[in-house]
Amino acid sequence: MKRMLIILILFPIVAWSYAQQRKDLKQLNLDGVFSANYGSHSIGTQVKLISLAELNGMNDGSLDGLNLIVSINHIQEAIPIHKAKILNLNLNNSEEFWTWIFIKNGMFDHYSKNGYRKDLRRSITEESNEFEEQMADMYYNDAYIKDYVHTILTTIAPPRGK
């Protein structure tokens, strides 16, 4: 009896620890079609992009990491984020457009691995502002050089509203 009770208690714990985990990062609701064959789905198959999610413990580990969760004929499937370019979505506004560009170019993956590096960005911005102030105090004033340096600095550290 004790063995049976222990098995009944341990089974859900073990099953829970090995269960697949899904952490939704961004909810989306975008319609589209496949622009290339994917698995058993042919070009032109209707698809609805539901979310961007981080999956762990699925199948053989091939889907671990960031994935696009899509609905095809009301069945949800995960597509690895590096395959995002096979989807042709109907984008209705600028927010959807830039979110899709962000996803398609791997920025979610980049930021999940590297972070936003806010401290580094802040220090670069401060240093570039300080350098521009020092340039303003120089005796030699050349509009072309100042504009060129300003362009380089804003490329590295875009200015924020003051």
Distance between the termini: 72 Å
Q: SS-based structural class?
A: alpha+beta
The spatial strand order of the largest sheet comes to 4-3-2-1-5
Q: Detail the poorly predicted runs.
A: none
Specify Rg, calculated over alpha carbons.
Answer: 25 Å
Rounded mean pLDDT is 78
Describe the oligomeric state of these chains in a short phrase: single chain
Number of helices: 5
Mind describing the biggest β-sheet?
A: 5 strands, antiparallel
The number of distinct β-strands equals 5
Q: Helix proportion of residues, in percent?
A: 40-55%
Shape: elongated
Helix-strand sequence? HEEEEEHHHH
What features would you describe in this structure?
This protein is an alpha+beta fold. It is 43% helix and 26% strand. A 5-stranded antiparallel sheet has the order 4-3-2-1-5, with no helix packed on it. Strand 3 and strand 4 form a beta hairpin. Helix 4 (118-136) runs antiparallel to helix 5. The termini are far apart.
List keywords for this structure.
single chain; 162 residues; alpha+beta; 5 helices; 5 strands; 26% strand
Topology:
Layout (H helix, E strand, L loop, with lengths): L1 H17 L2 E14 L11 E11 L8 E8 L2 E6 L6 E3 L4 H11 L2 H8 L3 H19 L6 H14 L6
Helix pairs in contact: 4-5
